[in-house]
Structure formats: structure tokens, C-alpha cells
Specification:
- The structure is a homodimer of 414-residue chains.
- Helix content of chain A is 43%, strand content 21%.
- Chain A is built from 14 helices and 16 strands.
- Chain A has a seven-stranded parallel beta sheet with strand order 10-9-11-8-7-12-13.
- In chain A, strand 7, helix 10 and strand 8 form a beta-alpha-beta unit.
- In chain A, helix 5 runs parallel beside helix 6.
- Chains A and B meet through strand 2, helix 10, helix 14, strand 13 and strand 16 of A and strand 2, helix 10, helix 14, strand 13 and strand 16 of B.
- Chains A, B: Its EC number is 1.2.1.41.
């Protein structure tokens, strides 16, 4: 039996048990996991050092090294994250819309764990802890497949977490790590339908595409964000500038930052020069379509390839449109369907944008940066879904559960 | 551009339009479609005759010929189905749980169409009409790929439906049929991620397996039903017999019929001989495990391969267990996770079964035959999902929609 088959089977068995533990038991386990991270932080930091040294030898970039490195503060952050998840209310067991049918059957839907959740992710070791905590809280077993760069760190973290879970009476295979980080094993994981109920990839566009293309297990696609802000012909200039600057520059490397600015032609002559100056003051490279260049000639010309691109950088491309419908159809065609915003003072335009833009989160007069589990009030998130089935937008604990019908009868036959 | 690429593109464009038509428009279109089926039934019956003649020449079985054949009554049935769907309330537009966040943002979820739904199905031409009606009512464009056996019938039905939809002001490509019924085209459809938002296979286990294995488009798995009835140690004998007979014999060829009977050993000595006789009176072949054979020696011995099998026939296999937990774990391992029922008078056992059995519909003291969109009060169904993501159990109009977050702000930045 391969490592994957074995861990899949163990995970499935653990999930049967986890589906029936009380909220209190899960909460205790999460608190114990947080305490164990702190009490065993030395071992984790030692393991992390091995990963970092290996990465330095390989000439890894500074940004990547920073994502990989752990320190006391980051381990405290991980422990705090687990405690926050422990304190959230348990979604499992909730019964929705139970009602009596004419024949006397009482039919309702009950929220239950999904079962075994697979997570495929890249370098950041804190994902190991965050994902384990959320999956467990929702009553799921989790099988983690991190990148080879963080191998020793992930191994140390999972060892600490699974021992702590076991000490709280949960199955020791509730949290498991795939130790073989080869591409072949990742592909095998994507086809492990017998044991894995859902696979969530967390990482760059390349990883997500590989999972969508190869998986036979159901996948929840997360993350790429080519987000747009549309400044309407009727707009408040200060609000528009604030929102654009915040959405572009407050954290350009995350998926909910804005990449594209669309401006109504009647607003462009006034607003474009102002916003270009403000963006440049924040070191943003502004690119423009032909019409934008006629207003601010020294913009970098935007090419066709710009419109679908997620920069994750201090770059923003501007397009000028004739009307709101051109903006909406440009967005619907080029967006990654993550988050889009309109800035307008016109009631009908606000409603039209909300109704017609086909993305996970559609805003009126607010920054796209709010698309986030904590900002939406979920307490934590496992990722942001950009697909339409099951979960769309930030995914919290509820999105890590499913529903089953429960039916109370007294002898009904059909 | 291939037929599929073209139809995919046209479907996508139609879906943008359909997402914004009023309920009234959709309702009018469905009534016109129903009327057109009746006024053009001659053309449909003529086309169906071609399919039936071809099938007869190929030596198709009587049962298959019956599924393929249309007549006036069946066309009336299809038209009535469309009228019923027309009369259902429109799920699109509903806003769920809108609430104000501490920063003043109002965040809610709005029900919207999925977009373009692909349906792959086998011989029955009435699926063409049912699926088109439901998808359209929920604001989706639909691309149908029926089997080659029903080619002329499907072509005639789709031609009538799409003309009627167009005459009601909906896009003519709202309902499209893939005319190339080759396997290659089916595979291409399963990978048409650019245009198809979700694929729903309707048919036998082989078709569903092929779709799950090959599709890169998100799939909703429907249908196989290896359903169980567990008769507990404390039980009402008449109720148990009624439920078993109903669940097995009222319509054995459908997925919610029961295939397995599990009996507590303390009930078996009394109940097994009674139920075997009753089942045999209905021409059911009863198979049994070793322990069942010690009680009723002339049962057909059940082999290992029986326990996962969906007979869809007048066959039922019986297993005797030591206690309710053995019944539950047998079900969780061998079931197709469709529908299961316990017959018991014991409160704690009823609750334990409901909580621990991991299937789409779990019953206490009722027949599994109720797992059905109409019986659940949805008015109609597009299939019964046996997967855990997005939809589980009977899928009605609501399951043909998705949610998006809509957010009202007044200048919030983060």
C-alpha cells in the first residue's frame, strides 16, 4: 500500500470518528494544539532552520525566504489562530428548514462535516497549521501536501499538532502530512477519489491550474484575483481616489487587491490625471489603453495581454469606456471573477453593476480589499473560492461542511 | 471553430442575457415552449419514429425501446412538466442573510444563475425537455448532449423548444443540442471549462464514472442508489414489512428503491421468514449472508460482490448484524450514499442512525422511495446528487443556482 493509500484510508477512518465528536472535544483539542505549538516551538524552529538553510543554498529569493521563515512571533501567530478558530461556533449539527410534508414526513437538512479534505499548497508553513485547525473544527480529517521547500517545517508542525489532537482524544490520523513531495504523488492525491472528499489548492495560478486539470476528486478552486474598480460618470472624486489607492496599494501581493481601473469617459478627463499622480506617488506603474494615453500621454501603453493579468505588484492598467455596460461586459469577459467594485453616486448604476457583474464579490463604493473571511465576519478563512459550485467568495467553517437530508417518519410508504 | 466551441460560446452569450431577464419573461417562455410541443407534436413523433425504427433494426431490447418511444400522452406529459416548472417560484434574485458589519458595510449573498449547464444523458428523450425547462427557469443556458439512439427525437424537441424560447424574447441559443454524438465530442464537452460552468450526467453508472474520470469542468454526480433498510432489534413488524416491500417493489428500476435489507439478529428469527415470504410473493429473489441462510436455508447465498451492487431489479440481499453500529458501519462502507432507512421504535437508535449514517437522505420509519424532488416539495428535479459538494440529494431549481456576495458601502477602505 502506498503512503497515499495508507494515509487516505487512515484519514477516512479518522473522519468517521470526527463526525461524531462534540464541539467541546474539538475545542479542547484546538486549545491543546495551540499550547503544543508554543511548548514545542524550539523543535519547530530547528526544523524550519533546515528548510531555510537549504533554500539559501539554492539561491532562493528574499521574498520567498521571508514566506518560508518562522520565528517566535510567527509561531505565536499560528497558536493564536488556532485559539480563534477554537472559539468560533461549531457549524456541525445545525438543522436548516425542517418542515412537515403533506404526508406527515418531517424533512430537514443537517449540516455535517465533508469528511476528508486534501490541501495542496506551496511554501508557507503557517498554512499547515491554519488549514488543520479549520478542517478539524468543522469535523473533517485533513491530509496536507505542502511543498518540498517547507518539508522539515511541515513535518515538525504536523507532528506537534497530531500528537496534541490525540492527547485530547481525537484520532491521531485527524491531521496527516504527505511526506513524499514528488509531483507523481501530488497527481496521485488528485485522483484519490476513494478517500478524499474534496481537494483545495492554495497557491499560485500554476498550481491551481494543475489541480483543476488533473484532479478527479472534486476541487474548490481558490484565489486568482484580477479585480476591477469602475469609476462611473457620476462619482465622488475623493471617495474614488481613496478606494483606488487603497485597493491597489494597501497590499498589492494579495488576491483581493485591484489590478484594473475602468473609468467612464465623462469622468476620465478630470479623474485620470489626479489618480495617475496619486498612484505614482505610491510607486505604482500606471498602464493605459489608447484613450487613456490621449489624456495622460506618458502612461505605459497597455497591451491585450494586460487585461486578463493578475499583477500582484505595484502595477495598474486603466481602460476608458463609453458607458457602464461597456465596463460590465469588459469585466465579465476579462475578470477572474473574484472581486469588483463600482464607485458611483447614481442609484440605478449601482444596482445595475451589482446585478450584472458576475463575480464572487461585487461592491458599491468600497474597496475590493474587504473580500476576506475575517472582514466578512467568518472569524477565519481557508481560502477564497472563485468557482461557482458549493462555495463562492471567502470560505469559512460553514464552507467546510456539507448538508444531508434527515427525515422523520412514522411508517410512510409511497 | 468546432461545433462544441461554437455552441459553448453561443451558450455563454445567451447566459449573460438570461441572467437578467425577469421571472415573468421566463415564465412566458416556458408556457410557449409547452404550447409549441403540443402544436408541433406531429413533427416530434415523426422524428421519434426514425429513432425507434433504427433501434428496432439494431435489435434493441423491449425495455430500451419503451424508454425511447414517444407518443401523444408522453408529449402531453412533457408539456405539463414545463407548465409545472413555469409555475414554480423563481429562485433567482433572493438575498440571503444581508447584515451590517461593524465598519458599516452591508454584506449579503444573492442567488444568481450558474451560467451554462451541460447535461450528458442517455436514451430518454423526455430528459431533453425536463432539463431544458429547469435550467431555463433558473436563468441558465443549457447545452444538451443526448445519446445517438434518440438523435432525431432530441433534434426535433430542441428545435421546437429553442424556437419557442426565441419567440418569447429569450436568446435562441438558450437551449442547444450537440448534434455530434461521438465519444470524442463527449470528452471535449467534459473539458470545455471556458464555456461550461457545470456538467450534470444523467444515466447509468458507466456514464457517470466516465464523466467523473474525464471531466475538468465541475461535475455534479447523480444517481446510483445502493439503498439500505435496517430493521432494528426493537421494531414494529407491520411497519417494517410495509416499508421493505414498498422500498423494494414499488419501482425497482429507480435509484431510490432499496437493494439491501439489514436485520438485527434479535429481530431476524421472527422477521426474516415473514419478509422473505412477502418478498417472494412479489417475485423478489432474496439473497442472504451466512447467518440469514441459517434461518431461511433456501435463500440464494449472497457473495461479497453483492454488498456494493445496485440491482435495479427484483433482487434484495439480506445481512444479519449484531447491533446497530455494525449496521451503520456496513452501510457507510458499502452504500452509494444515496438513501438509507432505519425501522425502529427505540428513540436513541433512531437518533444514532440519523447522525451516523453518511448518506444524502437518512430516514427513520419511512420508505427510501421518498428521495425525490417532487416528494421533497421542490416541484421538479434535475437529478439526485450523491456527492457532497454544492448539492446533495434531490436537486431542484435552487440547486441550479449559485450565490454571489453583494456589498453596499459608502466609501469604506481597509
Amino acid at each position: 500500500m502506498s503512503e497515499l493509500q495508507l494515509k487516505g484510508k487512515q484519514g477516512k477512518e479518522a473522519s468517521y470518528f470526527l463526525g461524531n465528536v462534540t464541539s467541546e472535544q474539538k475545542q479542547q483539542a484546538l486549545y491543546k494544539m495551540a499550547a503544543a505549538l508554543l511548548s514545542q516551538q524550539e523543535a519547530i524552529l530547528k526544523a524550519n532552520k533546515l528548510d531555510v538553510e537549504k533554500a539559501v543554498q539554492k539561491g532562493t529569493s528574499k521574498a520567498m525566504l521571508d514566506r518560508l521563515s518562522l520565528n517566535e512571533e510567527r509561531i505565536h501567530g499560528m497558536a493564536n489562530g488556532l485559539r480563534q478558530v477554537a472559539a468560533l461556533s461549531d457549524p456541525v449539527g445545525e438543522v436548516l428548514s425542517m418542515a412537515k410534508r403533506p404526508n406527515g414526513l418531517q424533512i430537514g437538512q443537517q449540516r455535517v462535516p465533508i469528511g476528508v479534505i486534501g490541501i495542496i499548497y506551496e511554501a508557507r508553513p503557517n498554512v499547515t497549521c491554519d488549514a488543520a485547525g479549520l478542517c478539524l473544527k468543522a469535523g473533517n480529517a485533513v491530509i496536507l501536501r505542502g511543498g518540498s521547500e517547507a518539508f522539515y517545517s511541515n513535518q515538525a508542525i504536523v507532528s506537534v499538532l497530531s500528537q496534541a489532537a490525540a492527547s485530547a482524544g481525537l484520532p491521531e490520523h485527524s491531521v496527516q502530512l504527505i511526506e513524499d513531495t514528488s509531483r507523481e504523488t501530488a497527481l496521485e492525491l488528485m485522483k484519490l477519489n476513494e478517500y478524499i472528499d474534496v481537494l483545495i489548492p492554495r497557491g499560485g495560478a500554476g498550481l491551481i491550474e494543475a489541480v483543476v486539470k488533473n484532479a478527479t476528486v472534486p476541487v474548490i478552486e481558490t484565489g486568482t484575483g484580477n479585480c476591477h474598480i469602475y469609476v462611473d460618470e457620476e462619482y465622488d472624486g475623493d471617495m474614488a481616489a481613496n478606494i483606488v489607492i487603497n485597493a491597489k496599494t494597501s497590499r498589492p501581493a494579495v488576491c483581493n487587491s485591484a489590478e484594473k481601473l475602468i473609468i467612464h469617459e465623462r469622468a476620465a478627463h478630470e479623474f485620470l490625471p489626479i489618480i495617475v499622480q496619486a498612484l505614482r506617488e505610491k510607486d505604482v506603474e500606471v498602464r493605459g489603453d489608447e484613450r487613456a494615453l490621449t489624456i495622460v500621454p506618458d502612461l505605459v501603453p497597455a497591451g491585450d495581454e494586460d487585461w486578463k493579468k493578475e499583477y500582484l505588484d505595484f502595477i495598474m492598467a486603466v481602460k476608458i469606456v463609453d458607458d457602464i455596460d461597456e465596463a460590465i461586459s469588459h469585466i465579465n469577459v476579462h475578470s477572474s471573477h473574484h472581486s469588483e467594485a463600482i464607485v458611483t453616486t447614481n442609484y440605478a448604476h449601482a444596482q445595475r453593476f451589482l446585478q450584472r457583474v458576475n463575480s464572487a464579490a461585487v461592491y458599491v463604493n468600497a474597496s475590493t480589499r474587504f473580500t476576506d473571511g475575517e472582514e466578512f465576519g467568518f472569524g477565519a478563512e481557508i481560502g477564497i473560492s472563485t468557482q461557482k459550485l458549493h462555495a463562492r467568495g471567502p470560505m469559512g467553517l460553514k464552507e467546510l461542511t456539507t448538508l444531508k437530508y434527515i427525515i422523520y417518519g412514522d411508517g410512510q410508504i409511497r
